[in-house]
Amino acid sequence: MSDIISDTFALQLQQMRSDLLAQIRAQRGGRISRAEAAEDPHALQSGDLNQAYSERDLEQALSERETAELRAIDEALARIAAGTFGVCVDCGADIPTARLHAAPTTLRCIGCQTRYEREHPSATPSL
Ligand SMILES: [Zn+2]
Q1: CB-CB contact of 127 with 107 (8 Å)
Q2: pTM of the predicted model, to two decimals?
Q3: Cβ atoms within 10 A of the Cβ of 79, count?
C-alpha cells in the first residue's frame, strides 16, 4: 500500500476517533479526560497501546463497546505505522481498498471474516 493511501486511511481513522470521543463527551458531559490523555500520538507511535489503555479511569468512563471501538481504531492506526495495514491477519492477502474505506478497522478479507464469524458466532462483528 502506498504512503499516500495509508495517509488517507490514517486521516479517516483519526476523524473516526475524534468523532467517537466527541460523541462520548457529549453523552458523559466531559468525563473522559483520561481518554483524551490517551490520545497522545507518541503512545500510538511507540505501539504502546496497553500503556495507553491501562488507566482504570478510562475503563470506567467508557462502555465496553466504546472501548472496543476506540481500541480497534488505535490498532488500525498502529498497523498503518507498522506498515501492516490492509493485510488480512488470517491469510495475508491484501484487503481490497473499497472494503477498507467502508470499514478501516477491519482485520480480515471478506472470505476470512465470513469464516471467522461462522467459527466465532459470539464475536464482535467487524466495526
Ligand atoms: Zn483473508
Answers
A1: no
A2: 0.68
A3: 20
Report pLDDT digits (tens) over 16-71.
999 999 988 887 775 555 555 555 555 555 555 555 444 455 555 678 888 899 99
**Residue 49 corresponds to which cell in the numbers above?**
497501546
Of the candidates 33, 35, 19, the one whose C-alpha atom is nearest the C-alpha of residue 11 is: 19
Q: Which three cell numbers stand for residue 111?
A: 472470505
Q: Which class for 104: exposed (0-12), middle (13-18), buried (19 or more C-beta within 10 A)?
A: buried
3-state secondary structure of 92: coil
What separation in Å is there between the alpha carbon of 107 and the centre of ligand 1? Answer: 9
- 110 C-alpha to ligand 1 centroid (Å): 7
Distance of CA 3 from the midpoint of ligand 1 (Å): 22
The rounded distance, in Å, linking the Cα atoms of 7 and 25 is 26
81-95 per-position pLDDT tens digit: 999 999 999 999 999
